[in-house]
């Protein structure tokens, strides 16, 4: 197991290097003068030229790439052109905001999705099954943008149950320690603040989590159906075990393996979908950070941001693979 | 692991995710302390906020806007969002009278100009202090101007450039300001290399707000994250892409101001989400209302509509590098075939006026005797025939329509489609192209791909020079003159007007310039828009400024 782990971690490096190469060449293939976009219509020609020199944009791109990689190896993630602040310092609150949102969305998606899938399989062809699968179908095809706006309209504007934007109540701000506000309010023991933070999380997590929820529900259902028909389940039933235990203890364990893969992939996909959700809900996360960098051609931020997301994605995949082994002893990594 | 329930396993996945976030979750420098009592500030040892004033009147303003500041040091930015915040933290020597572009005293109480226009002497307001407690005086003014003008200044930090200083007072090598001298503690003298007519207008810009020299020396690069000025509000905290918090400057030199205790400016990129937040009471004031939401706003008695004075222009520019748009008859013909009023009714919810000249009518020097090319398709056809195209243009025209929403043009593509339909009627086929914004600006600047392009401009200061010379003089090629329009007579007028210090004479020069431009028709000026804001009905004292910046110091809630 340990040697497998080391091997997997070693494989990460070529993957990430390949990633930097792809990102770097794509970004530099995009037309448009970054100096003009960064400095705006009102900047002088002189300062645009100065910026091009400073960024090395007048050099061949391969040389630019090696310079960039050189800095990266030394732990320098670069400096944002727009804000003129080191990215390593700047990105932390964004990353925390996105991770909090992604975690909440996946909790919602997994909890609702897995249970809906199980119940649908358990009561196959019942009204619950049909309803759940229709909802899942709608969920998969729902544009995040539209869902988010509809949620705001209903739960914020009409019912006044939940706040429509942001991470906290600005009139009574949360004290930041880790930038993960749920954790921060718990650490500070501010329980009313915790509730406010959770309320702010609900609408965006549902918007972001609906698609993965639907995918997970459908995957769980089909995987469960397959397992439920196998011999060992029949044996368990014959032993007189309760339905609940059969389903949640014996069947789920084996049915969960393909579901885990889906969860891993969906979590990665969420990082991409986060841009839309973060825009509608004014969520100051890494998706918006990268989006704004793209629209202002802030090259260092785009590169580093995408690299960090790729890194998280790869790590999630690794975790999923390791979880397989934990769940199913037949899977043996030697 | 085996003993664990499977559900726990599932939950663990989520927790694992959250934990991976904790690893990098240190607190960053600019996140600071967010205690809401206002005692502990990240920026300075500024005076603590006053206790809540009596009664129930609200004393915190939450403003929602579309984007975040790029930097809080006004000298190094050119974007409007950055300047909005700087306007609250810094004062300039002069300022614009609220709601106008007229210059009035600010940190300078009075000023004298020598008849040759080469020397300006400012008397500074006595007893003003920066937020860090140091004195504002003539030396501080000298320090700031030296920082901006000296390319080797040790206070010009890596990556910084003082673009506005360069563009208003000339780049290094051809500076307008020769030197800035502290005559005594409260008198400062500017000596110019050549007269500059809009000098006072320029000095009043937010970008030339006076910063605390002590704070710049102490904070160095970090000054752009923790600004210190003399303004009505003290910077407290900046959460990037989220919010900027400003506290009341209790020692502000203007008596009785500011009226609010605290201002929080939030970035909410989506227009309709911002409007939802306003209706839901999460913010008190919002910028850039979509014209589509106007009827909802007007039907809500708890909210009020606020109009920013029109100080912009949206236009179609003809690319003189391309045939047949170098032919004045063709340009005039197409000018006759645009129905501006119909466009305004359809896409601006009436919140715009048809543009005749390249500058807005509210600006002095506007020539209201210039007649627009009236909407007349027969005339258009006749002019095309005169130009040698009796059956319309042989080739389709590439029309560049803006891919992004701008205050002067909320939806460029739809407007382009309306124009396309009109031109079709006179035999001009159009292909609309909307490349992504950076490419768009690049292409129009190069002038190789577009035949006709759509663009606009919001004025920076209250001077016609900032519209006419900046956008249509031959000096602005390559750059803002994307039509590649060259007229020597116009150039003589505009550069002459820059050196003329008598405003009456300048007005005459600019009026002549507008006539020349109309006759040459390098542009079809489309509209001057009235950007919309919306706020709570009990919000008072907000006077929107034409250039997009305004003081929040007079705002209060009833």
Please explain how this structure is put together:
The complex is a heterodimer of chains A (334) and B (558). Chain A has helices at residues 2-29, 34-39, 45-55, 61-73, 87-122, 127-141, 144-158, 181-188, 191-228, 231-238, 243-280, 286-295, 299-327. Chain A has 334 residues and is mostly helical. Chain B is globular, with a radius of gyration of 26 Å. Chain B contains 16 helices and 21 strands. Chain B has helices spanning 6-23, 80-89, 138-149, 163-169, 199-203, 213-219, 271-279, 294-298, 328-336, 340-347, 377-386, 412-425, 437-446, 465-472, 488-499, 503-520; strands at 60-65, 94-96, 103-105, 108-113, 119-124, 177-184, 187-192, 233-239, 243-248, 262-267, 285-286, 303-307, 312-318, 352-354, 397-400, 430-433, 452-458, 523-529, 532-536, 539-540, 556-557. Chain B has a seven-stranded mixed sheet, sandwiched between helices. In chain B, strands 14-18-13-17-15-16 form a six-stranded mixed sheet. Chain B is an alpha+beta fold and 558 residues long. The chains are: A mainly alpha (334), B alpha+beta (558). The interface between A and B is large, with 90 and 84 residues.
